Amino acid sequence: MELTNYAITRGFNWKYLKNDNVRLTVRCYVDVCPWRLHASVVHEDPEFAIKTLNNIHSCGCDIMSDGHPRTSKKWVANAMKGKLVDKPTYRASEMMRDIRRDYGISIPYHQAWWGKEVVVSSLYGDFRTSYHMLNWYSERALQSNSGSVLSLEVDPETQHFKHFFICFQASAYGFEVASALNGNNELFTVAYSIADSETYDNWVWFLQNLKKALLSDRRIAFLSDRGKGLKEAIPDIFPNDHHGYYFQHIMQNFNDQCAGKYAAPFKKLLRKILQCIAYVVTEQEYQDAMLAMEINSADAKEWVLRNDVDHWSHVRFPFGELYSSLAESFNNWIHDARSLPILQMVDKIRVQMMEMTAKRKIDAALWDTPYCPKVQKIIEKNLQERRSLPICHSDGIKFEVIESIKTYAVDLHLQTCSYGHWQLVKIPCKHACAAIGSNKEAVSQYVSAFYSTEVYMAAYERNIQPIPTFDMPDPPQPSNILIKPPTTKRLPGRLRKRRIHSRGEVDHAYICSRCKQIGHNRRT
């Protein structure tokens, strides 16, 4: 391998004259070139020592600049192994770039990819043997993180992997004061699971474990894409909780329903009305939007009613979220880990969660505001905008706030505003801020404690603990039952790594440079 590295670095190739267990003789591939090397073993040592070397090239060492015939997946693996040890998510495209920079040659993508596979297999074992150590890892994780819930299930007859559920005690504890969205509108990872397929039975198993892992019986609002089996599984396991649907999926289904039935301008109008049905926050606005849909298309209104509008409109599902951004954020967050063998993937996600928890705890300790930064900006914006709003007093707790030609009723005791957003997100809107200021009170009295820095820090009070693997047995003990990979059929060709996008999800959000809205550009 050292000879290969030297030849690639110098840009020449060689021919074997002798090559056996005790001696090696090579010369330059160009017949007229005098370069020659002879080496042999030193006593019984496994290493070779150079005995003769004519290190002069008359050929100019001018091998093809784009590649080298001595590169192979084995050479790529040896050259890049150190970087893969430091960065398990090191990509084949990055390997191509670094080899070009370090050795001055180009290698094809498939060679870099196979080189990476060789390294991954040597470091972690292949993808099949990675399943063997899941039992050991689960036991070690419970030792390091007592109180956590890790559940591994295999087929009792064939020992094929079925699913693996992980919820660390620190995450379950943090969920008591947070949700999948923390007080700073960031992703808070509660639990995750790996399954052999997306089915009703697997979703039921996941939700049962989630229910067991949670520390209280508080009501939960789920938000999902109505995936295979999930729509039916949630009410079966959490019958008293709420289940909302991503609106972008509803919109895509509506587009399919309208395809070929309406002209483009009319379909655009119906889409706008559907958005109003989803996003308005008062009952009157909701009824007006439903009436507008009925006037324009009775069929479209019937479609809305048939498609569970109570699960995707703010008026009927008043939890302030109809977007899939959290799920997409998590999918992007674990993208690199998904390319690893299952044991390393599970542990990589744990490490990411552990580091994120530690970082957010450190960041929060530096905040000097009573509320999380993103929420603090919203409060300050509303306080600034309230300054121009006239106010009429009804009594000490009820006010009428005037904005342009519209008026809004604010009740400080019930913490409501007819604008609707205060009730939805539990942050006083500008009308509520105007009433609170007129009453000589602090806005902080009316902001949900969920958004406070104190509660944010409580969500990350406990840490996910390290899981040492230095003493992991290799290979597994013969007495242990070896878990086999799931019985999924592999399709022809290279495995797909990019996530399959959900309905209505786009790769890139276009932002108009003129109006700053999402979904189109300046020309459209």
From TrEMBL:
Segments passing through the bilayer: none
This protein's UniProt keywords: Metal-binding, Zinc, Zinc-finger
One Gene Ontology term of the molecular function aspect: zinc ion binding
Listed SMART domains: ZnF_PMZ
SWIM-type domain span: 408-440
Annotated InterPro entries: MULE_transposase_dom, Transposase_MuDR, Znf_PMZ, Znf_SWIM
Protein name: SWIM-type domain-containing protein
Organism: Colocasia esculenta (Wild taro)
